[in-house]
Amino acid sequence: MESKNTEKLLDQKPEKMPPVGKLFVITGPSGVGKGTILERFFEDNKNIIYSISQTTRKPRPGEVHGVNYFFVSKEEFEKSIENDELLEWAKYSDNYYGTKKAFVLKALQKGADVLLEIETKGAQKIMEKFPDCITVFFTPPNLDELEKRLRGRKTEDEASIKKRMDTVKEELELSTIYKYTIENDEVENALSKLQAVYDYEKRPENEMQGEYCTENEAESEAGRE
Ligand code: ADP
Ligand code: 5GP
């Protein structure tokens, strides 16, 4: 997922950015296809910034530090919790995952749209802090298909597949709390639904001035952490 527009957009002058940034949160069970769909989504949508998370998980073949994740040690992660550097974090399948606070708040302050791809507990924390964030929950056609996708990806060992599948029922039970639910049956189908959500949320009449991005709001959000 190289082309996440991150540095390019952050380097723009504030006056060139749209006036108000929106926070999009993409969530759903592991293996449902979030990464696959987002990779395509970012190819067509250059004005939204992907928030690169921090994790203690080991990189998979092909994953790059600073592109897919910031890969850190358990000690480093715990230090960033202590130092209040994360907007949210969660322990998932024996590893820590978290969203870098300064990065997201700075991007929102500059008026950029930001997209988080995070698991459901983290998504719920973001919903509490940013009630107007736009949440999208991806569901699989069924549990067998989800497990088939997880196995087919060939990135997880048996224990990790089991841990991931163990959390799915709980994750699906809460699917109604999100603003949008999209079934990832076919990639093209799910992608066009995500695009429709984004286009709808970006319509001028749906823009809420100052929603996240006044400096005061971001500062007080940072202070509240
Ligand atoms: P996530 O990011 O949600 O963990 P991935 O994007 O890594 O999931 O997808 C898991 C696996 O499922 C990958 O091997 C991917 O190619 C496959 N996949 C994704 N979407 C679909 C789909 N609609 N139909 C079949 N396979 C899919
Ligand atoms: P994976 O190990 O497959 O890359 O990710 C496992 C799960 O962690 C996925 O559901 C992914 O969305 C989630 N995740 C990735 N980054 C973050 C983050 O910063 N915070 C939280 N809470 N979850 C994350």
Please tell me about this protein's structure:
This protein is of the alpha/beta class. It contains 10 helices and 9 strands. The protein has a 5-stranded parallel sheet, sandwiched between helices. β5 (86-92) and β6 (95-100) form a beta hairpin. The longest helix has 15 residues, at 187-201. The two termini are 30 Å apart. 33% of the residues are buried. Residues 14-19 and 209-225 have low confidence and may be disordered. The site of guanosine-5'-monophosphate has 14 residues, from β5 and β6.
Secondary-structure topology with pairs:
Elements: H1 6-10, E1 23-27, H2 34-44, E2 48-50, E3 54-55, E4 70-71, H3 74-82, E5 86-92, E6 95-100, H4 101-109, E7 113-117, H5 120-129, E8 134-139, H6 143-153, H7 158-166, H8 168-173, E9 180-183, H9 187-201, H10 215-224
Parallel strand pairs: 1-7, 1-8, 2-7, 3-4, 8-9
Antiparallel strand pairs: 3-6, 5-6
